Structure formats: C-alpha cells, structure tokens
Amino acid sequence: MEQLHIGGIEMGHPPSIDDDLKKMIDKGVPVYAVREDAEERGISPGDTVPEVQWIPRSDVARLFIEAKRIFAW
Fold first, then answer.
1. Is the pTM of this model over 0.85?
2. Contact present, 35 and 54 (Cβ < 8 Å)
3. CB 60 within 8 A of CB 70
C-alpha cells in the first residue's frame, strides 16, 4: 500500500475516520451528521458508521446549545 504524502511529507499514520468514530461511540460520545451536508457530498447514511445520528441542518443550532462539548472534524 502506498503511503499518503502531503506537501512532499510522508504521513506515517493516515486517518482511519470510521475506526476513530467507532471508538468515540464505544466510549459513549454521541456522533451526529448533518443530512443535507452529507447529501450534497454524495454520502448516504448507509455509507457511514451505523451509530451516527443524522440530523437536519435546522437542528444544528439546537444541538450546539444543548451540547457540553463539540468536536468538529
């Protein structure tokens, strides 16, 4: 497998986003995705980690108000 290079620098540990998300979910961290944003990028819920909670764009502000912490990818 060829290594990932950015700006001529080899990235020794490329991200494994699906595994990272699963680890967070297994630790009890809720993970949300905005349905419209995903659809605009050609991503459907079936293409993602099953435990991701899909919300409409109109719920983002409410989620930010209710959340204790927000991690963005």
1. no
2. yes
3. no
Q: Which pLDDT tens digit goes with each residue over 38-49?
A: 999 999 989 999
Dihedral angle sign, alpha carbons of residues 7, 13, 17, 23: negative
Which is nearest to 27 in space by CA: 73, 58, 71? 71
d(CA 41, CA 63): 22
Burial code of 10-45, b = ≥16 C-beta within 10 A, e = fewer? Answer: eeeeeeeeeeebeeebeeeeebebbbeebeeeeeee
